[in-house]
């Protein structure tokens, strides 16, 4: 049951919608006064009454029923207690019936969401700076699909620019096909780094010519470029598979080279394109932004040109309800400019474009990458986490079966959870020791909780989960069940705010509540009157924790 909605339906405030009331209802940090609370401060101005008086009047108007057991007012808050037995029975029944689909909905049925994320550069390996966009976009993909949306994952490949002319020049001068085939993307990247440190003026001119040949359709230049692209995708897809990330489109910048002119023509037709020092721009100064550069003085296109063409194509192809760009906050201005240009072009769907900005990732020893080749590869970070996880497993449970497989789930899960636990806009300092801790707010802690619940379930074979007619619910049981009941709200909230950290924090909260219940309450050896509900709570916790972690892209081992 959606308890916030149920409570909101009981409340009438003049001039305030049920949806707005529902959005204000929250679980108070101190549950001594109630299980849910509605702050009445926002109603004071409209109703011309104090929040204290409003809360008192509302409390008088709402009678307890089979769901709400008590209504009270205190200091401007309207507090509700939920019937504990009713909540336990209803929540466990719903989770038992829906299993891994508990928390899902059909809210997105018939709606399409495009998500542009990861967007790797051809001929460059993944560095740790790609972690956030990849796992954040991957989690949003899963969350929206879980809510019934048609989701289109787009990997807007960085496959256009003079750097590819440089790469061909470097390969021609120093490359060896056998070595590149053997070492793949790392050999290609070494060639690019070498070009940036050793290239002569003659080679720079040669690189520009090779890029011109790519654009003009030269067979040899394009065969080399396509080979570099194949090597890149072969490499990154292995990492995507490990992270549980998928895409429906790999249309990158190059795909839009023949789709830019109609946009440029429309900008001219509507009088939006102005000349500035030989370049073509859209003047955005009246909107508090610098001009949006569309064509350079030499006629070359830019990121903005290609992003505008991509927006047109995506709207025409997918007719999206929302188009999300999961890109670092350093690009805030770029996307504000793009969205404003679309608005000036009269596209009413410009309002449906969303920049999902995120912070930077660094290791404890500092920055991530430079053009000189000093990079921390994401694959190395994942491998190190997996190896460290294996060492911990060897120490804690040396006889565990399938240790390598478990270590893979734990290590990869630690990387993903470490990137998603904090609010997305915050910069992250990645610590191997912290993300792999079995204690605290980590993915490993949540996975271990699942293994603990699974162990109880394995030992409970043949034991009944049928609840008796009269149920007595203690504090630890109620805290777990109340948290379980909040899962659908957490999923919806994560989608509404484009914030997977809400689900990550929910998972930790549920794990903490369950572990307190596990230590405070007998389960397998409990009296027959309470054992069924405690086993059912354990079943439900495992199901919901699995689902929550799965929405983040994290696998759950049966044993740890």
Write the layout of secondary structure elements.
Layout: H1 3-8, H2 18-24, E1 36-39, H3 44-47, H4 51-61, E2 68-74, E3 77-82, H5 84-98, E4 112-116, H6 131-146, E5 150-154, H7 163-174, H8 177-183, H9 185-198, H10 201-216, H11 219-243, H12 261-269, E6 273-276, E7 279-282, E8 292-295, H13 303-318, E9 322-328, H14 332-344, E10 353-358, E11 361-363, H15 378-396, H16 403-420, E12 428-430, H17 432-435, H18 443-459, H19 475-485, H20 487-496, H21 501-520, H22 531-552
Parallel strand pairs: 4-5, 4-9, 9-10, 11-12
Antiparallel strand pairs: 1-3, 2-3, 6-7, 7-8
Helix pairs in contact: 5-19, 5-22, 7-9, 7-10, 8-9, 10-11, 12-13, 15-16, 18-21, 18-22, 19-21, 19-22, 20-21, 21-22
Characterise this structure.
- With 560 residues, this protein is an alpha/beta fold.
- Among the domains are: 3-82, 2-Layer Sandwich (Gyrase A, domain 2), CATH 3.30.1360.70; 161-228, no CATH class; 261-300, no CATH class; 378-424 and 432-552, Isoleucyl-tRNA Synthetase, Domain 1, CATH 1.10.730.
- It contains 22 helices and 12 strands.
- The strands form 4 sheets. Strands 5-4-9-10 form a 4-stranded parallel beta sheet, sandwiched between helices. The chain has a 3-stranded antiparallel beta sheet with strand order 1-3-2. A 3-stranded antiparallel beta sheet has the order 6-7-8.
């Amino acid at each position: 049951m959606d308890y916030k909605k149920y409570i909101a339906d009981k409340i009438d405030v003049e001039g305030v919608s049920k949806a707005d009331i529902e959005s204000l209802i929250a679980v108070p940090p101190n549950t001594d006064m109630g299980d849910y609370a509605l702050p009445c401060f926002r109603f004071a101005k409209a109703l011309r009454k104090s929040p204290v008086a409003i809360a008192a009047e509302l409390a008088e108007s709402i009678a307890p029923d089979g769901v709400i057991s008590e209504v009270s007012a205190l200091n401007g808050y309207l507090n509700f207690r939920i019937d504990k037995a009713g909540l336990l029975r209803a929540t466990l029944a719903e989770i038992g019936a829906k299993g891994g689909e508990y928390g899902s909905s059909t809210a997105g049925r018939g709606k399409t969401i495009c998500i542009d994320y990861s967007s790797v550069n051809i001929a460059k390996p993944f560095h740790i700076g790609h972690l956030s966009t990849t796992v954040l976009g991957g989690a949003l993909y899963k969350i929206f699909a879980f809510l019934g949306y048609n989701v289109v994952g787009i990997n807007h490949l960085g496959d256009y620019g003079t750097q590819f002319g440089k790469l061909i020049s470097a390969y021609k001068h120093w490359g060896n096909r056998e070595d590149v085939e053997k070492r793949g993307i790392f050999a290609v990247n070494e060639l690019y780094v070498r070009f940036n440190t050793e290239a002569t003026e003659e080679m720079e001119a040669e690189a520009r010519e090779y890029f011109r040949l790519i654009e003009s359709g030269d067979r040899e230049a394009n065969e080399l470029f396509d080979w570099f692209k194949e090597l890149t995708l072969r490499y990154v897809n292995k990492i995507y598979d490990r992270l549980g990330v998928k895409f429906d489109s790999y249309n990158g910048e190059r795909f839009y080279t023949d789709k830019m002119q109609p946009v440029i023509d429309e900008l001219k037709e509507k009088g939006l394109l102005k000349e500035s020092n030989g370049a073509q721009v859209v003047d955005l100064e009246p909107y508090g932004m610098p001009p949006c550069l569309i064509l350079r003085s030499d006629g070359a296109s830019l990121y903005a040109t290609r992003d505008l063409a991509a927006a047109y194509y995506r709207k025409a192809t997918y007719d999206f309800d929302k188009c999300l760009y999961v890109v670092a906050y350093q690009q805030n201005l770029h996307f504000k400019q793009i969205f404003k240009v679309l608005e000036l072009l009269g596209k009413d769907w410009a309002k449906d474009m969303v920049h999902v900005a995120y912070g930077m990732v660094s290791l404890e020893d500092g920055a991530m990458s430079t053009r000189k080749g000093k990079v921390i590869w994401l694959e190395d970070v994942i491998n190190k986490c997996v190896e460290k996880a294996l060492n911990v497993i060897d120490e804690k449970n040396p006889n565990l079966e399938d240790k390598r497989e478990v270590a893979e789930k734990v290590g990869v899960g630690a990387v993903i959870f470490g990137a998603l636990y904090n609010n997305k806009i915050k910069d992250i300092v990645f610590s191997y020791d912290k993300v792999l801790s079995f204690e605290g707010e980590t993915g490993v802690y949540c996975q271990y909780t699942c293994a603990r619940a699974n162990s109880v379930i394995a030992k409970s074979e043949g034991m009944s989960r049928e609840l008796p007619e009269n149920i007595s619910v203690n504090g630890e049981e109620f805290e777990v069940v109340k948290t379980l009941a909040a899962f659908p709200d957490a999923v919806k909230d994560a989608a509404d705010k484009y914030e997977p950290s809400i689900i990550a924090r929910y998972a930790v909260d549920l794990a903490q509540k369950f572990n307190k219940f596990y230590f405070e309450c007998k389960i397998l050896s409990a009296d027959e009157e309470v054992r069924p509900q405690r086993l059912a709570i354990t079943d439900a916790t495992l199901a919901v924790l699995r689902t929550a972690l799965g929405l983040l892209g994290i696998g759950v081992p049966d044993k740890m």
